[in-house]
Amino acid sequence: MRPDYPMTPKRMLIRKLASFSNKMKRLRRMPVGDLSGSQLLLLPIIYSFDNPPTLNELAEANESSYQNTRQILEKLESTGYVTILPDEKDSRAIRAILADKGIAAVHEYYRTMYGAVLHLYDGIGDRDVEITLSVLDTLYDRIDSLYASSITAHLDS
C-alpha cells in the first residue's frame, strides 16, 4: 500500500514550477531564424549588462553552466552576433560584446517576442508578482541550502 501524500497547495506549487520550467526549456530549444532559442535568449542577457559581461557573469545570469554558456557564446561569435575578447585585467577571463548583428537581434526580440512574454502576465497584478517573487526567492535560498547540505552529507558518509 502506498503512503498517502495529499496534494496540498505547497506540493501543487512545486509541481507547477517544475512543469513551467519544463515548458520554458522547450521554448529555449525552439529555433528562431538562424538562432537556437538558447542563443537568442542569451543576447538580451548580454545586452542587460552595463559593461560587457564575463563568461562567469553570463553563466550565472543565464543559470547555466560555464561550459554550456561558452558553447553558446562561441556559436554566437561564429555567426557574427557577438565578439569574444579577453578581459583586460584578468587574462583567464573572457568578455562578450554584442556585434551590430547581435544588437539588431535583441531589438527584434523585444519588438516581437517580449510582448508575447509579457502577455503571460495579463490579469496578474504587480502585488501578486511581488509576492510570487518573494516566495520564489525564499525557495531558491532554501533549495540552495538543501543542495549544499546534501553534498556535505554525501561527502561525510
Automatic annotation (TrEMBL):
Which InterPro entries did the record assign? HTH_MarR-typ (IPR000835), WH-like_DNA-bd_sf (IPR036388), WH_DNA-bd_sf (IPR036390)
Domain HTH marR-type: from-to ranges: 10-141
Q: Which PROSITE patterns match?
A: HTH_MARR_2 (PS50995)
Pfam families attached to this UniProt entry? MarR_2
Q: Name the chain's protein.
A: HTH marR-type domain-containing protein
What domain of life does the native source organism fall in? Answer: Bacteria
The organism of origin for this protein: Raoultibacter timonensis
